[in-house]
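Fold these two proteins, one after the other.
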Amino acid sequence: MTKAPLSSSLYGVKIKRRTSDTNTCCFRAAQKPLQPGFSLVELLVVIAIIALLMSMILPSLEKARSATMRIKCGHNLKQAYLAMHMYLESNEDVYPCSQDPQPEPPLGYWLWMGRWRSFVEPYLSTKITENNPSVLLCPQDVAHPTENESFSYAYSMTFYHSPEQIDTMNSVLETYYIVQQSIPQRSTDVAKPSGKILVGEWYSNHSPEPNDQGWWCWVGRRNYLFADGHVNYLKVDKIRPARDQLPDGNLTIHGIKGIDSPP
């Protein structure tokens, strides 16, 4: 006896199917061949290629990141220069000058690292503290949490000691222990602003060195802000030896009358 076709209606349209058709469809689905997957060898090859690409890309990404941080550091120094320039305009073109000697070693009149912040802070957009060094911190300075009052940039003592005073100092120790009263220096007395370091990174933050002693060693490279406002990223061998025979912007021969790096 022939089975009657099953029928159903959807929106008034009749659809007929035979039960034998359904059985045939299920049988065909069961017979569908499996798609081949990756073999172990192929998977290992893919992983090796990815690892090779990562080894090529990651150094480039790290270099790009470092370059970005170096540019940001340079921008920080530019901001510091604008603040310094406004300070000069408000103080008859006289650079920040310390009148309070250090109470304990190191002695002398040092506007060391963060000590010069109080002069430029009124001309910056935020309050500068050890907990918020703002633009006075290089983004790649890893030493800042424990050293130099959390600040990255040194202000040259040639801008608050006369050339005659600077020319009597022949070593780093003499800047500490032979106490000389600071003398304000005028911006108009800087002989070669494009060649005289005003402020600079103390450490080689963008090219780390294991025995970095700041401006008191011949290793690394740093961002330097010059008295004319330009910033240059220089190797230390591009800095002329100072009176202590080091690339020391604090003891530039003839002070602000001298040159640290030819423009």
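Now the second one:
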Amino acid sequence: MIDILASFCLSTKEVSPLFTGNKNKQEVSVMKRMIIWGLFPLLLIGTTFILTGSDSAVSLDQEAEWSINATAIEACTCPMFCQCYFNTEPAAHSHDHGEAEHYCKFNMAWIVNEGHYGDTDLEGSLFWLAGDLGEYFGDGTGEWAVIHFDPTVSEAQRDGLSTIMTSLFPAEYESFGVHEDLSISWSANTQEAVALLDNGNAAEMRLVHPPTAMSEEPAVLTNVIYWGAPRHDGFVMMPNEIQAYRKGNKAFESSGSNGFMITIDMNSNDI
């Protein structure tokens, strides 16, 4: 099986990755996006991944036509609402040693409502992203990120989604990995949203309708950029009761912090 090794590249222009919406094609041209496939090992030197090995890396078919409409359940360690959508530095978190530390440790559970990559149907695909933007991401670099696919996602669907993600999430991470397949459960309504990775053993998000909402209708923030999405239906505010990633040495957990749902829509003509 081909390993998908993603490198999300921005220009040297100082810009928050959360501010790089595709308002027009001139804006998009500021960013360089690249993904490399290969049958070669990924070596970690210091804190930065480098690609070495076979010369037979296969470049992506950038001419493939694609479209996607997908919804995320998302949560992070920032207070409600995540300041990373308005700043280049995450919220400060105090610890027992008395020093404040800045980070935004996040989970995203995505379901594709409809979409395709070439002739490959993407509808129903489920994938999970977890990571940390680090203490400062104004240069377009985050600390780490991992992705898990649901076992039902085919190889062709993974290849298409990996390509699309370089446009949706135009950022570079010091550490990025495609981790093992794990089952993803995803459910949501106007009052709650629940996403579980490996039945909650690997990761969990439980979001609720905000108690400060003026009615039972969704509380929605609009007209704010979401990563590289040219269109979305707004941030449906839903603070989390718990959000956790429980795999490996980067495990984290928070409660009562930021959470929302969002539906994005984009296609290859937007790029």
